[in-house]
Amino acid sequence: RRSVYNPTGFESFNMGGKIPLGLKRKGLRIVVTGGAGFVGSHLVDRLIARGDSVIVVDNFFTGNKDNVMHHFGNPRFELIRHDVVEPLLLEVDQIYHLACPASPVHYKYNPVKTIISFFIALLIFIIIIIVMMMITNVVGTLNMLGLAKRVGARFLLTSTSEVYGDPLQHPQVETYWGNVNPIGVRSCYDEGKRTAETLTMDYHRGAGVEVRIARIFNTYGPRMCIDDGRVVSNFVAQALRKEPLTVYGDGKQTRSFQYVSDLVEGLMRLMEGEHVGPFNLGNPGEFTMLELAQVVQETIDPNAKIEFKPNTEDDPHKRKPDITKAKELLGWKPKVPLRKGLPMMVSDFRQRIFGDQKNPAT
Ligand code: NAD
Ligand code: UDP
Ligand code: UDP
């Protein structure tokens, strides 16, 4: 069956996209792969609140049922334990494809699972066991594109600023092709997402699938994995636990941190809008890791110590999104600066780390 994509979500979609007064918006059927994860679960909250029906597809590799439990019992919500590497048959209007072992620690201990590049894939085909593991980004994305093609759904890929690698252009504009080491420790993630972007554009050009591509910059907020090794979650958890903040290298490398609600707003605007992308979605506020440590000290514990540790290989020296395109074409820009967003994340971490116990850091 090939259903007709109805971008307005209104039953009156054949009325030139205009919604006559008094007509109720028809809820869409939306799949969110990776919907039990950090970003996915916040997206699900917004979609459910908007009146849509949401199917979360997640294998709980890094996600958690707790993130979506508050929707259990809602007839517009479904949760399917499924690995996107396996084919999936559903009838839907939109697919938000977030499933991916995302955090550095997770993708480093299972690197082949996030590998991609067709060339590497060809070699890997020779080694059956690696073929078995090689996946989420290629096969998972391929399956979701196949699903989108079959049912005429619109497909959104959550790609990453990592496609720019260790960028030689600053800030990064979408037209920059990046500087990625194809054989380094981070490559499984970077190249995985680059190949996912390639597949997405091939299905768009070759099969007419409606696609959208977001390049997401470092995002933080409530429900982030506590011990996944990312810098914001590490610093916040360390400060709360009265441990030293671990700064890797000299701490002068930069990142731009976006609060999760800003990202979700950007993803939804991208999905509903007319433009394929890719679009950078990130907060241009740029911080060195030492500056970030200082903001965490200000927010949680001014006496928190800093401990320097060796940096990881191929760590990008700087990263900051140019969001001119998203501003102009999606009417989007982030609203929550780091010093406003961080306290909201800290309350969530405090609750999850200490539960009802008294927090020793206060
Ligand atoms: P996350 O780890 O919290 O969420 C990913 C979800 O995908 C998890 O629930 C996990 O269980 C699920 N998953 C992984 N492999 C799967 C598979 N094979 N089948 C089904 N489900 C699977 O990560 P996140 O931070 O919420 O990231 C969401 C998306 O955004 C990812 O695609 C990630 O690459 C992208 N992204 C995130 C950031 C960030 O800073 N958070 C930055 C750039 C890009
Ligand atoms: N696929 C899926 N659900 C669907 C349709 C396709 O999971 O509803 C998978 C399918 O198993 C295949 C991939 O998507 O592995 C690509 O599908 P496509 O139809 O584009 O390619 P083909 O099956 O013709 O190779
Ligand atoms: N980093 C750090 N201390 C930590 C974890 C990370 O100084 O405890 C640094 C890391 O070396 C990198 C930056 O913080 O330069 C961002 O790392 P993260 O893994 O959060 O994101 P990514 O490198 O994927 O942008």
TrEMBL record:
Pathway, per record: Nucleotide-sugar biosynthesis; UDP-alpha-D-xylose biosynthesis; UDP-alpha-D-xylose from UDP-alpha-D-glucuronate: step 1/1
Gene Ontology MF terms in the entry: NAD+ binding; UDP-glucuronate decarboxylase activity
Keyword annotations of the record: Decarboxylase, Golgi apparatus, Lyase, Membrane, NAD, Transmembrane, Transmembrane helix
Membrane topology, as annotated: Single-pass type II membrane protein
UniProt KW Transmembrane keyword: yes
Subcellular location: Golgi apparatus, Golgi stack membrane
GO cellular component: cytoplasm; Golgi cisterna membrane
Domain of life of the native organism: Eukaryota
Cofactors: NAD(+)
TM region(s), chain numbering: 115-135
EC number of the protein: 4.1.1.35
All copies of domain NAD(P)-binding, residue ranges: 134-345
GO BP: any one term: D-xylose metabolic process
Entry's family note: Belongs to the NAD(P)-dependent epimerase/dehydratase family. UDP-glucuronic acid decarboxylase subfamily.
Function of the protein: Catalyzes the NAD-dependent decarboxylation of UDP-glucuronic acid to UDP-xylose. Necessary for the biosynthesis of the core tetrasaccharide in glycosaminoglycan biosynthesis.
Annotated protein name in UniProt: UDP-glucuronate decarboxylase
Organism annotation: Helianthus annuus
